[in-house]
Amino acid sequence: MGFNIYDFSTFTHNLHVWFNQQMSPGWATTVEWVIVGVLYLTFVALMGLFLIYAERKVCAAFQQRIGPNRVGPWGLIQTIADMIKMMMKELVAPLHIDKFLYNLAPFIIICCMFLTLAAIPFAPGLQGLDFDIGVFYLSAVSSISVIGILLAGWSSNNKYSLIGGIRAGAQIISYELSVGMSLMTVVILAGTMQFSGIIEGQRDLWFIFKGHIPAFIAFVIFIIAGTAETNRGPFDLAEAESELTAGFHTEYSGIKFGLFYVGEFVNMFVVAAVAATVFLGGWMPLHFGGFESFNHVMDLIPPIVWFFLKSFGIVFIIMWLKWSFPRLRVDQILTLEWKYLLPINLVNILVMTIVVLTKFHF
Amino acid sequence: MAEIKEIFINSDNLETDEFKINMGPQHPAGHGVLRLVVTLEGEIVRNVDPNIGFIHSGIEKMCESLAYNQIVHLTDRMDYLSAHISNEAVCLCVENALQIEVPDRVKYIRTIMDELMRISSHQLWFGAYGMDMGASTALFYGLRDREKILDIFEETCGARVTLNYNMPGGLMFDIKPNFQKQVKDYIKFLRKKLPEYDKLVSGNIIFTERTKGVGILSLEDCIAYGVTGPSGRASNFSCDVRKHHPYSAYPFVKFEEILDTTCDTYARYYNRIREMWESLNIIEQLIDNIPEGDYAVKMKGVVKLPEGEYMQRVETARGDFGVFIVSDGKKNPYRVKFRSPGFSNLFAVNKMSKGIKIGDLVATLGALDPVMPDIDR
Predict the structure, then answer these.
(1) Do A243 and B207 lie within an 8 Å CB cutoff?
(2) Cβ separation of B359 and A245 shorter than 8 Å?
(3) pLDDT, tens only, B27-58
(4) CB-CB neighbors (< 8 A) of B136 in chain A
């Protein structure tokens, strides 16, 4: 089959050829779809479990606690136990809700999560969709999740949920701008919107170094805006537990709450993965143009390891932010976006354009 | 045209923009079973109506059928975070009524325990306030340091929160031999740890942005509502009972009354941090000078107060706590009234929170440090 940890493209290609030999092209495509779907489902489930465990441990470390340590070695099975509990819980729906929208909301969030995940390149040849408008596609589908949150807030027949939903709407739509524009800054540098092209462009140097000052500003803005878009602290206004009990998912129980919960964590991973891909080279090992032997040593580490190392590094930063900052107020969150991040971003794009035109980058 | 005008005129009376939510009795920001009926216009708070009584336990009425040394043990169920100080209020009241002079040793130990209790209360408050603001790490910083104080309490009298260490005429037991060393170690420990609080919360830009200039309570309103304690002193209301009506060992120590003129939520927050520093100073002045002597005065088995009215004020962690006893000369009091600081402080929240956001309402309420059993009694 030609399985190679450094490059999956021959393996996937051979697999595709093999399926086509065994059955008609139509069936082969269907089988491939099913396999890819199951792989993504498994990945999301495992990633959700792992990130929840990681968050508990990281949070515990910041708060001078131990974290889960009773179920399994180092509490590793704790989240699995929690997941089983959550799946077995009764689904309690309050009275006078809009049943259709109430039940639809968690699935919109999950669907949106899968759509964004599809564009993430995990390793060479290991990518669901490699559109030539990849960055555009990603920012388009990632903003669908706000519909799920708004519907959840609207349909639950609860004032806390409604306030949470409206807050999330205002917040996510605002920060969508910053996410898009900070990605555009890099697209100008890369000259392409395709993720594989963006990664290929970082073969000599990661964009955060290559684009120096404007790229770094874009990176910081992306982390802030990405955190805000996934509704995580210090921007967790939509579910501010001390103000709105649990915000938009107050009335959800059992696995429906679980879907929101997993959605939040995997979305955080998606933000981290996009940041890693666009700014830190994705699966591309750390390369410096000209240092051949150094680059060769770095190439020995498989790309998929590079990708997850960078992604989890950024996930750690996002968790760090959450556990050290208090929550912002709703007007402050909008002030931050419209009065600070957006103007800085616009100027930053201009600076990046000048940098690219004058070739004043590494 | 006339129809449209009519609709506009009528819609003024409908109040379609405002809606009410019930925050509590079960709400994460309630600090217990407090119900706030909040009138909102979108995110903006228009009116706050605190509803209390969910944990009312009839302590004042119960006191009428109990002996004086039994009343002491009810008071630490009220403001459980400054249990020792409330105990002391009743003890001082009974001692004053009987005109008993307790030994200096008792006064010193009581004051040291008072200040330790105040620090531990402020530490828990610091954590809870962090939670209100969404900074949950603060809770564990507060609890970490509070545990050590509770350990000292446990070794001294066997209890960690509701101490029951005071009784009319003195203390239940003498202090343990290593009490002084433990307390001195703790002073050193906390002086190292308190700057961490500033680093984590007080100096945080998000925190200062959210609290400075929010929940203003002017000095006039502060006095009108009877807001005392660190919350009152944040509005420059000099109301420290320890300073103005000193009791126990407070006349022997030099300390500063923490005042602030900014009148906002941040001042209320930072006053408590400064009070912790000041409490450490008070303890430091006393801990080495605990005089030798008895730890209690010999009292009669049945305490009977002479007929009359007796009042004693103390400064708990929340403010001015008063005990008013009416005696008809029997072994039970005729009537007991507690003036709890939390009750007066809580009702100023409406004045402070008009026109601010929901998030600020939580911040303003939290800065008053409400303890529900203290308010409901």
Answers:
(1) no
(2) no
(3) 776 677 888 888 888 788 888 888 888 888 88
(4) 63, 323
Contact flag A325-B28 (C-beta cutoff 8 Å): no
Decide if A23 is inside a domain.
no
User: What's the confidence (pLDDT) of residue A343?
Assistant: 92
The model's pLDDT over B182-192, given as tens digits with 9 standing for 90+, comes to 898 999 999 99
Distances (CA, A) of B265 to B69, B234, B238, B365: 39, 8, 17, 9
Q: What is the ipTM of this complex?
A: 0.80
Going by the DSSP 8-state scheme, the letter that residue B251 receives in this structure is G
Helices (H), chain B: 2-14, 59-63, 68-75, 83-98, 104-132, 137-157, 179-197, 205-211, 219-225, 229-233, 241-244, 265-287, 341-346, 349-352, 358-367, 372-376
List pLDDT tens digits, range A67-124: 888 888 888 888 888 888 888 888 888 888 888 888 888 889 888 888 888 888 888 8
Contact by Cβ (8 Å): B59, B65? no
- How far is it, in rounded angstroms, from Cα A297 to Cα A303? 13
The answer to whether residue A65 is domain-embedded is: no
Give the residue ranges of chain B where pLDDT is below 50.
1
B362 near A CB under 8 A: yes
User: B45 by DSSP, 3-state: which?
Assistant: strand
Residue B228 near residue B341 (C-beta atoms within 8 A): yes
Residue A255 forms part of a structural domain:
yes
Give the pLDDT score at B4: 55
Kindly report whether the peptide bond that precedes residue A214 is cis, defined as omega within 30 degrees of 0: no
Contact status of A233 with chain B (Cβ, < 8 Å): yes
H/E segment holding residue A275: helix A254-279
**Largest Cα–Cα separation, chain B:** 91
Q: Do A332 and B210 touch (CB under 8 A)?
A: yes
Give pLDDT tens digits for A283-319.
888 777 777 787 777 778 888 888 888 899 999 998 8
Supply the range of the domain harboring residue A303.
Answer: 91-357
Beta carbons of A236 and B134 less than 8 Å apart? yes
Q: Tell me, what's the pLDDT at A206?
A: 81
For each of the domains in chain B, give its residue range(s) and CATH number, in order of start: 3-376 (1.10.645.10)
A30 found inside a domain = no
Compute the distance between CA of residue A243 and CA of residue B121 in angstroms, rounded to an integer. Answer: 23
- Establish if B289 touches chain A: CB-CB under 8 angstroms: no
Q: Which residues pair with B339 in a beta bridge?
A: B322
Average pLDDT, chain A: 85
